[in-house]
Amino acid sequence: MGHYLKLYGATLVAFFAIDMLWLGLVARSFYRQHLGFLLSPNVNWVAALLFYLLFIAGILVFVVLPGLKADSLRTTLLYGAFFGLVTYATYDLTNLATVKQWPLIVTVVDLLWGMVLTAAVSTAGFFAGKWLA
After folding, report:
1. Dihedrals φ, ψ of 112, to 5°?
2. In whole angstroms, what is the distance from residue 8 CA to residue 124 CA?
3. Residue 19: Cβ within 10 Å count
4. CA-based end-to-end distance of the chain
């Protein structure tokens, strides 16, 4: 159990660091430009933390552990990109279908980001798992 908690912690740190870089620096103005009319002035950190905790569990169960079992970085990258696409598509395509004036460009950028982010974090988790083994 301790092994999985360490792996979870390492993957969580990687996810948080990469996503905060994206949200805080790289894409901050992009989201304000396209979603400013929807953005809250305050982040709901409880909801954000719940997302992070659940998403990392999903990355471990559906990507990192199968990648480690196969002893394959390629499997990890492919599963990570696909898991990122599916999970981010759930949010973005639902919004595109149901939220008035949801920008298509946000959906496209988010889908690409979800794939890159999840593949990168999964890779970090894969290497952390190899190191912890």
Report:
1. -65, -45
2. 11
3. 18
4. 13
Eight-class DSSP state of 26: I
Residue 107 · residue 93 · CB < 8 Å: yes
pTM above 0.90, yes or no: yes
Q: d(Cα 130, Cα 73) in Å, to the nearest integer?
A: 11
Q: How far apart are CA 69 and CA 126, in angstroms?
A: 10
Q: What are the contacts of 85-90 at 24+ separation with CB within 8 A? A: 85/111, 85/114, 85/115, 87/55, 87/58, 87/114, 87/118, 88/113, 88/114, 88/115, 88/118, 89/114
Q: Which of 83, 77, 85 is nearest to 112 (CA)?
A: 85
Closest alpha carbon to 27 in 97, 129, 116, 89: 116
Q: Which residues contact 103 (CB under 8 A, 6 or more apart)?
A: 34, 35
pLDDT digits (tens, 9 = 90+) for 59-110: 999 999 999 999 999 999 999 999 999 999 999 999 999 999 999 999 999 9
Which pair of structure tokens corresponds to residue 102?
């949801």
Amino acid at 101: Q
